[in-house]
Specification:
Length: 244
């Protein structure tokens, strides 16, 4: 999906496997399922965009704030560890650049569960999104227990649609103004009189753009670097296929 971050217009999108609209095979249910708007998935580490923005916005965290990622976090029968362990105390940019699960949990704990839940709700990540087609999936967050919100901080135990993920990201990247997804070009221009809803400050949005650029230049998103463009981003994996 390609979205204009300033007004939520969907410029291009696809859902795979695809099908020929002139030869619709109704037996192929998998191809007819719209993963973009109807499918919901664990977003994995892409969700750290929101955890990091939330701790900057709500807890006053800065680029020099440090998080202890030396040891895995043990809670009840669960053990939270890093996929690319640095095994040291990390600065906020390093937590984001190296995609530390441990550091993200520390961020969630720093701001508090209630503030984190309210933040992702304001971004539209806990409500069914509105768009001009009926096939829209509702996000899933079974509960807001301590362990659930800890795992949600790094994108597990919560499921959202790709549409919600890109819309919420756009709302931070554009300077902090909430956008609504639309398939109708220029719809936003005709509704200029609508009140703008700020979800993060311009300063927080600027910091997040810097951090996402660092992910590509010095972090886990190096493969996205393209000559001639200032690419910024955040990779994420929920589940990996094994054995085919």
């Amino acid at each position: 999906v390609v979205m204009d971050v300033n007004n939520g217009e969907i410029i291009a999108a696809t859902s795979l496997p695809d099908f020929d609209p002139h030869k619709v095979d109704e037996k192929n249910k998998d191809a007819l399922f719209n993963r973009l708007t109807l499918g919901i998935f664990e977003p994995g580490s892409t969700f750290k965009i929101f955890t990091t923005a939330a701790v900057i916005e709500n807890a006053g965290a800065g680029m020099d704030t440090m998080y202890d990622a030396r040891e895995p976090i043990k809670i009840s029968r669960f053990r939270i560890s890093d996929y690319h362990p640095e095994k040291r105390v990390l600065s906020l940019p390093e937590v984001f650049m190296h995609s530390s699960n441990i550091g993200s949990v520390r961020m969630e704990q720093e701001m508090g569960k209630e503030a984190f839940v309210n933040f992702i709700r304001d971004l539209g990540l806990l409500n069914k999104p509105e768009i001009e087609i009926p096939e829209v999936g509702a996000p899933q967050l079974p509960d807001t227990s301590d362990i659930r919100m800890m795992t949600a901080s790094f994108g597990h135990g919560i499921s959202v649609s790709p549409l919600q993920l890109v819309t919420a990201s756009s709302s931070i990247m554009n300077g902090g103004i909430l956008v609504k997804p639309t398939l109708v070009l220029d719809r936003a221009a005709k509704g200029k009189d609508q009140k703008s809803v700020r979800v993060v400050s311009e300063k927080t949005a600027h910091r997040m753009r810097q951090l996402m650029r660092l992910v590509v230049t010095d972090g886990t998103g190096g493969k996205a670097e393209v000559e001639g463009y200032n690419v910024a981003g955040k990779p994420g994996t929920a589940d990996k296929n094994e054995g085919g």
